[in-house]
Amino acid sequence: MFLPRIVKRMSPLLGSRMSLNACRFASTDLVRTEVDDKTGIAVVTMNRKPVNSLNLELLRELSSALDAVEKNKSRGMILASSLDTVFSAGLDITEMYKPDQARLKDFWTTLQEVWLKLFGSGFPTAAAINGHAPAGGCLLAMSCEYRVMRPNLTIGLNETQLGIVAPSWFMSTMENILPRREVELALTLGKMFSTEKAHEIGLVDEIVDTKEEALAKCTEFIQLFARVPREARALTKQSFRREALQKLDRDQDLQMFIYLVNQPQVQKGLGLYFESLKKK
Ligand SMILES: CCCCCCCC/C=C\C=C\CC(=O)SCCNC(=O)CCNC(=O)[C@H](O)C(C)(C)COP(=O)(O)OP(=O)(O)OC[C@H]1O[C@@H](n2cnc3c(N)ncnc32)[C@H](O)[C@@H]1OP(=O)(O)O
């Protein structure tokens, strides 16, 4: 169970530019949440070595962090990773391969919850993509309103390459950013874009060299809304995203996921993929 720890500290996170700002921290081992007192912006940092693969515990803590950001009335939220080369490797394959059925259900329900909270949040959101962002990692980044990425990385929904089908709400999330034709091609190919290509097509908004610059650019984006009335902004965003949010029928989606993941050929594919990752 995540219990936010709120203390006052000096921020070591954003380098010298922000180091004098007092921050409130609400942190656990897997997710660190730091609110800059000057900007009022929360930085939520995923910290699950080695690749921030999204298991049930990480998802639960992300869900609680999103609640805390909402409750604290932060000016906005930046999603980042503590790891040098990976933003998030997507869903943890071990949650889906030879799964415990009760945990599998919990896992998917929590993923739905995280997406609903992040994609549907009223506060401004930005992703500082300081590492690779395949599949579920790409979903998290795409659920934010702005994406800043370091060069020579990869991002995309690669599910078809794994022999699985991205759920329709993953698709809607990409469709909120890219033209339909581009989305269809990306999804059917299971395309992983380089940072540079992702920027060219508009999947990523800016390219910067360091994580610090990414955090600074995300901060600039969120500050664009400083003078926009908060409620009006939130309702506009939520109204714009409503169709995608309402399309998710949680029960039906859960049943479909459980059914498909338990299919022998899907289990076989997941097992082979997991082995190939280990042998890499
Ligand atoms: C009709 C059929 C329908 C079926 C429907 C099913 C329902 C649909 C549901 C699922 C949707 C799924 C979306 C997903 O998110 S699936 C996950 C997809 N993720 C990936 O493909 C990424 C895989 N990982 C990588 O490409 C790399 O690891 C990378 C992120 C680029 C980082 O590379 P690198 O830094 O070189 O690290 P390693 O590859 O050496 O990995 C280090 C260890 O981490 C383990 N690992 C990596 N990714 C995962 C993962 N996603 N889950 C669990 N574990 C992972 C890897 O095995 C290494 O482990 P070890 O050190 O023990 O060897």
TrEMBL record:
<keyword id="KW-0276">Fatty acid metabolism</keyword>
<dbReference type="InterPro" id="IPR029045">
    <property type="entry name" value="ClpP/crotonase-like_dom_sf"/>
</dbReference>
<dbReference type="Pfam" id="PF00378">
    <property type="entry name" value="ECH_1"/>
</dbReference>
<comment type="function">
    <text>Key enzyme of fatty acid beta-oxidation. Able to isomerize both 3-cis (3Z) and 3-trans (3E) double bonds into the 2-trans (2E) form in a range of enoyl-CoA species, with a preference for (3Z)-enoyl-CoAs over (3E)-enoyl-CoAs. The catalytic efficiency of this enzyme is not affected by the fatty acyl chain length.</text>
</comment>
<dbReference type="GO" id="GO:0005759">
    <property type="term" value="C:mitochondrial matrix"/>
</dbReference>
<comment type="pathway">
    <text>Lipid metabolism; fatty acid beta-oxidation.</text>
</comment>
<keyword id="KW-0809">Transit peptide</keyword>
<dbReference type="InterPro" id="IPR001753">
    <property type="entry name" value="Enoyl-CoA_hydra/iso"/>
</dbReference>
<keyword id="KW-0007">Acetylation</keyword>
<dbReference type="GO" id="GO:0006635">
    <property type="term" value="P:fatty acid beta-oxidation"/>
</dbReference>
<keyword id="KW-0496">Mitochondrion</keyword>
<keyword id="KW-0413">Isomerase</keyword>
<keyword id="KW-0443">Lipid metabolism</keyword>
<dbReference type="GO" id="GO:0004165">
    <property type="term" value="F:delta(3)-delta(2)-enoyl-CoA isomerase activity"/>
</dbReference>
<comment type="subunit">
    <text>Homotrimer.</text>
</comment>
<protein>
    <recommendedName>
        <fullName>Enoyl-CoA delta isomerase 1, mitochondrial</fullName>
    </recommendedName>
</protein>
